[in-house]
Amino acid sequence: MRQSIIVTSIVTTTVVTTAVAACTKEAPKAADTTPAATAPAPTAAALAPGEARLAVDGGSIWYRVVGSGTATPAILLHGGPGYASFYMRSLEALGADRPVVRYDQLGAGKSDRITDTAMFNIAHFVRELDSLRSRLGYDKVHLVGHSWGTILGIEYYRAHPEHVASLTLMSPALDIPTWERNAKRLVKTLPDSSQKAIATREAEKKFDAPDYQAALGEFYGRYVWRRPVQAELDSTLANVNEAIYNYMQGPSEFTITGTLKTYDSTPLLKTVKVPVLFTVGEFDEADPPTVKRQAAMTPGARVAVIPNAAHLVQWDNPDETNRVLRDFLKSVDAAKPKP
């Protein structure tokens, strides 16, 4: 990935983040949402074929259903939190075999914006996902989560195992203390000038300083995306809800100050009874050795390292990513007991 493209795209945003971070320990339960806490989605464009909106607690979410196949449906869970699903469009190719649902979580993308921090918690997003599954009339679904979406996936399984056919955990962020340690280790691989800018500006809490933003661009270009789809990158950055990301994650991938600081769902992995696929990019900030260890904690789990890819494998190596996911989902469907 050319660094100039990354830095140019990133510096235009207030804070530099991507759809990569994970979730949080539970925030307080949502109170009744006041009108001031919800704003309409940033664009009011007419819905295209396959698109719809669903009223959920706190607003309405946008979703899209593609695919003509008849196999068990798959729901895509994007990263962030606070980012949109746009960067996961390449996974809609899985629709050759099954319905594929792509949606923007409340507060992100084409869904309504929210500012009430009482809704910035796992339980809210789990309820939202269950409302979508129920609306679509799906009894069982494959959950395909990326980054923060892996936490949403595992937490949905914890709450509703009866509705989950399989879990695909792409570049998982299931253990945030370990995530932060790995990210800080990767910072030490950056040029000295970038390391100095990060240390200085974080001490000063000047996260919008140009040299800090440029250093983040260096980090992102190595470990988050190497070959971004520029139109999707621009759309993703233009529609981020920074309030959610900052509240739950923090100012960057390697300085975690949000409510997710101590999140760790790895003890749950040994109890998972559905098929699980872990994927990770060769150069992923999620860290291949860490992901392999998490796969080893999960009974019968498979793991695939996507070559020549960083965190956003959907951009860096979409063909191999889709091949691995398609083969896994088809194998799970084939193993289902016949009625």
Describe this structure in words.
By secondary structure, this protein is of the alpha/beta class. The chain has helices at about 5-10, 120-135, 150-160, 175-185, 190-205, 210-225, 230-240, 240-250, 265-270, 290-295, 315, 320-335, and strands spanning about 40, 50-55, 60-65, 75, 100-105, 115, 140-145, 165-170, 275-280, 300-305. The chain has a single domain, classed as Alpha/Beta hydrolase fold, catalytic domain (Rossmann fold). It has an 8-stranded mixed beta sheet with strand order 2-3-5-4-7-8-9-10, with helices on both faces. Strands 1-6 form a two-stranded antiparallel sheet. It is globular. The N and C termini lie far apart (about 50 Å). Mean pLDDT is about 85; it is low at about 1-35.
User: For this structure, what is the CATH homologous superfamily?
Assistant: Alpha/Beta hydrolase fold, catalytic domain
Strand order of the largest sheet: 2-3-5-4-7-8-9-10
Helix content: 25-40%
Q: Can you write the helix and strand succession as a string? A: HEEEEEEHEHEHHHHHHEHEHH
Query: Which outline best applies?
Result: globular
**CATH structural fold name:** Rossmann fold
Task: Let me know the largest β-sheet.
Answer: 8 strands, mixed
| Structural class category | alpha/beta
Q: What is the CATH level 1 assignment?
A: Alpha Beta
Q: What is the C-alpha radius of gyration, as a whole number of Å? A: 19 Å
The CATH architecture is 3-Layer(aba) Sandwich
Number of domains in the coordinates?
1
Distance between the termini: 49 Å
Chain-averaged pLDDT: 87
Stretches with pLDDT under 50, minimum 5 residues: 1-37
Number of helices: 12
Taken as a percent bin, the fraction of beta residues is 5-15%
Write down how many β-strands occur, each being a DSSP E stretch of 2 or more residues. Answer: 10
Q: What is the assembly state of the chains in this entry?
A: single chain
